[in-house]
Every structure is written in structure tokens, then in C-alpha cells.
Amino acid sequence: MRAPTEAFAYRYAAYGDADVLQRHRYPLPAPGPGEVLVEVISTAINHMDSFLRNGEEDTWYDDPWPRASGSDFAGIVRRCGPGVTTMAIGANVVGHTRTGARASHIVLPADQLVAKHRAIEWEVAGGLFLAGATALETLDDFRIGASDTVVISAAAGGVGSIEAQVAKYRGARVIGTCGERNLDQLRQLHITPVKYGEGMAERIQRVAGGPITPYIDNYGKDGREVAEALEVAPERSRSSADRREVELRLLRDDAESVSHAT
Ligand SMILES: NC(=O)c1ccc[n+]([C@@H]2O[C@H](COP(=O)([O-])OP(=O)(O)OC[C@H]3O[C@@H](n4cnc5c(N)ncnc54)[C@H](OP(=O)(O)O)[C@@H]3O)[C@@H](O)[C@H]2O)c1
């Protein structure tokens, strides 16, 4: 098979819905010192990508236009620049970038990649970074363990489903909120499901039968009210706004943040 000479990426030249994304073609870029060229096999769409694209999130408001999109990807290393010793051509990798993952190829420093475990399918690997790292940061922050009864909202969603499974793995008792259609999915993961909506705090109280340590809200809106109704200490509660801060920290591209995120 002949190596491609062209790459493409989805970019946008104005804030808006997904239809502002346009496919741009350009010559296949070459990696510089310490960089690699990765062929992107799978990438994810996170809420944060949409917030950045529609202007709701203005942290990088002065980025030049047109702008790239997407932070998570998994792919195959196709070229290594001078001085790269940690990655080889053909390596299957999971990576992250502040933006630009929605592309056929991406050039980035080799230290923004880790090896993709062979048991992880491409579709999963390409969506692991932001949701997975956000979930881990939150659980690490609370030092979740066997003595905890954790309530996780939107527990069948992107971040919530990883939080719920890792909290369970760490020995906690996990109660997850979800819609009717996901009650069985959570049960199969040994997570106690509670349907969201009117009366949710009472339903949580009933199944918890004791103090909640902590309450992790992924959904926002009624999250604060529910945490208060459950009498969760403020230092044992995480809001959707806290989650935004965690996600933004994981996307920052200064050397220390990148190293932490990798
Ligand atoms: N503050 C921020 O900057 C920020 C950053 C990222 C995400 N978010 C928000 O966080 C939410 C979840 O994002 P995600 O990526 O983890 O999940 P996701 O994969 O987009 O799924 C959305 C989840 O929200 C759940 N949900 C819907 N209505 C709900 C309600 N009334 N109460 C509790 N949960 C409800 C859904 O449950 P079912 O599927 O079971 O119906 C689903 O699991 C989104 O609404 C997103 O906008 C906020």
C-alpha cells in the first residue's frame, strides 16, 4: 500500500453548531524533533468540544481562526521525528491534544502518547482521554475506597460510567443516577441505579441507608439541591462546574499540564 501524501482535518471558522465544521485537506505534515505523526483511527466528541465550538466556553477565546477540534484520539504511529526514542513506527497509541484530534493524521510530541493496551478496542481507546482522566482525577481527589458510599449522577454517561466502574473497582458502594433505559445497564455493573427526576433525593436516601461520601454531579442543573437534600458536606461534593475546571486543566498545553494529563 502506498503511503498517503495528503491529510485532512475538521476545522471551523466561526462559532456555531456542528455544521460549522468543514473538512480541510493539506499535505501530510512531517514530524519535527521529538514529534511523531499519528494516523488517527478513532476520536471522540466530548461536550467540551461543543462548548468550545459554539462559544459557550471561552477559555481559549483568542485562538486564531480557523480552529481545529477534538482532544481525544487513538491511532498508529506512522513517522517519528529526530530524537524520538519512546515510540516506534507502527505502535498503537492513545493520545491527547488540546485541539486537533478530529483529523486523519496529527503531529504532536511523542510524550503526549501512551501505548494502547491490545485489549482495548479502537472505538473505546479513542474516547478514553478526557472522560477517563476527568473521572480518575475526581476519584483520586476523594481517595475513594471501601468505606465510601458514592453517588454519581449521569452514571451511564461518558464521565459518570467510568467514575462508577472505577469507584466500584476501588471497593466503594456505588449509587448511580440514570434514565429508565439505563437502569439495567447499571445493575449489570453492580451499581445501584436510581432514576433521575422528581423525588430523586428521597430515592437515593432510601437505597443509601446512611451517609453519602461523596456526591459527584456530572449533570448540573438540580445537582446542588440534591446534594443539599442529601446533607452531603460541601467538601465531599463535586458539581458540574468543578468538572468543567478539571476538564480545562486536562486540556491545557503548558508542559506541566501535558505531562500530568499523559
Ligand atoms: N460544566 C461543564 O463544563 C460540563 C462539562 C462537561 C459536561 N457537562 C455536562 O455534563 C452532562 C453529562 O455529560 P457526559 O459527557 O458525562 O454524559 P453523556 O454521555 O453526554 O450523557 C448525558 C447523561 O446525562 C444524563 N441525564 C440526562 N438527564 C439527566 C437528569 N435530569 N439528571 C441526571 N442525569 C441526567 C443521561 O442519563 P441517561 O442516558 O441515563 O438518560 C446521560 O447519562 C452533560 O449534560 C454535559 O452538558 C458539563
From TrEMBL:
It comes from Microbacterium sp. LWS13-1.2. One of its GO terms (molecular function) is mRNA 3'-UTR AU-rich region binding. Keywords: NADP, Oxidoreductase. InterPro entries: ADH-like_N, ER, GroES-like_sf, NAD(P)-bd_dom_sf. This is Alcohol dehydrogenase catalytic domain-containing protein. Gene3D superfamilies: Medium-chain alcohol dehydrogenases, catalytic domain (3.90.180.10), NAD(P)-binding Rossmann-like Domain (3.40.50.720). Coiled coil: none annotated. GO terms for cellular component: cytosol. The keyword NADP applies. The keyword Mitochondrion does not apply. It holds the Pfam family ADH_N. Residues 16-258 form the Enoyl reductase (ER) domain.
